[in-house]
Amino acid sequence: MLKYIKLKEEIKKYLKTIETDSPLPTHAMLSEKYNVSDITVRKALNELINEGLIYGIQRKGIYKARPKRAFLDVSILTDLVYFNKNPQFDISPGLMEALQHDMIESDMDIILSLTGNDPEREAALLEKLILRKPYGIIANPYPIRTNFEIYKKVVSQIPNFVFVDKYIPGADAHYVGTDNYNGAKELIKECEGEHYDIIFCLYSPQKSRLNSEIDRIRGFKEGLKNIGYDTLKENYDWTRFKEEYLSKLNKYKNILFITPRGISFSWVYSTIKDNLSKCENCKVICFDKPEGEFPLNITVSWYQQNAIEISKKAVELIKNNVTERQFIEYSGKIRHIN
After folding, report:
1. C-alpha count within 13 angstroms, C-beta hemisphere, residue 264
2. CA nearest to 292, candidates 259, 265, 274, 272
3. Mean of the per-residue pLDDT values of the chain
4. Is the pLDDT of residue 205 over 80?
5. 208-243: per-residue pLDDT in tens?
6. Which backbone phi and psi does 10 adopt, to 5 degrees?
7. Per-residue pLDDT at 183 exceeds 90
8. pLDDT confidence of residue 83
9. How many domains does the chain have?
10. CATH code, domain with 166
11. 148-157 vs 119-132: helix axis angle to the nearest 10?
């Protein structure tokens, strides 16, 4: 092996032991330590500079350079980031935390775009991303949207596009998320052998819901059929539920609430809790852990989604520039309250 190549490899080993921007030994020190000529030292250092591993400052010395980044930026587009929630239980903070970790490990710069429950803001952010042309986009869109066509436009122009947890029907992009259909059927098994006076499936019936939530509802219905319930007795969005059933809840002793999102039950519980005071058994089946404390007559079964695996696979698809579209689903774990 040529002397300068051997020296270069020794310096690379040394670089792993020091922090970024730390100084290297001088030319004279390197020459004496490794018993090589000044010409050999210069040739080894010049190659390391060309590789971006070190940099020189005139009349000051040679320093360890910051690692080259593989990509300029990857945008995360999401409806909300729940900073005050427990990442262990809720998919959004858990997913954001995992993505931040995995992207930093892969030398990706994160651009976080918060859309909120605002289709116009979401559309504007998507148009900006088309102009910016990031290396990749990881999108976790809000479940009710009218921006399907804009998403399709962005997907067609940004090849490295991954939907996580929720996806836009018809968009030619990767999807990495939860097996919502089979997860919902597994949750319903928790009700096997039990009797309910009435079953409510609380969800908004808009046609623009994303497929992930529709898959959950299909799974709920199929699961109920498997344990002897042919159909849901009632399918209600919250507005109709308040108008038609809120005042009548006291007459039911056994009630089952099913909802595609745990937060949906949290929203309604503060309104209905007094009406459930005489209920002997109220069971809630949902995805994601609902917030709040519940009395002993209310049991909750919820689905803890696999945020860590979802994040790792999403980042891997972008990092490896995978061109063949992949639809990947992971199973989760059933958890209980009370």
Report:
1. 22
2. 265
3. 84
4. no
5. 566 778 889 889 989 999 888 866 656 666 777 788
6. -65, -40
7. yes
8. 43
9. 3
10. 3.40.50.2300
11. 10
Kind of pairing, strands 234-236 and 254-259? unpaired
- For residues 114-131, give the mean pLDDT: 84
88 pLDDT more than 70: no
The CATH number of the domain holding residue 27 is: 1.10.10.10
Nearest to 147 by CA among 201, 87, 197, 77: 77
Residue type, 137: I
Domain that holds residue 133: 74-177+306-330
| Assigned domain for 69 exists | no
Q: What pLDDT, on the 0 to 100 scale, is given for residue 40?
A: 92
What are the start-end ranges of the E strands in the chain?
54-57, 61-64, 74-78, 110-114, 136-140, 161-164, 174-178, 198-202, 234-236, 254-259, 281-287, 298-304, 327-330, 333-337
Please tell me whether residues 103 and 213 are part of one structural domain. no
Rounded distance between C-alpha atoms, residue 254 and residue 278, angstroms: 10
Which tokens sit at 270? Answer: 């503060």
Quickly count: other Cβ atoms within 10 Å of residue 250's Cβ: 13
Same domain assignment for residues 152 and 82: yes
In a domain, 260, yes or no: yes
State pLDDT tens for residues 43-79: 999 899 888 889 888 778 899 987 665 455 888 887 7
CA distance 122 to 147: 8
Tokens describing residue 200 = 């409510």
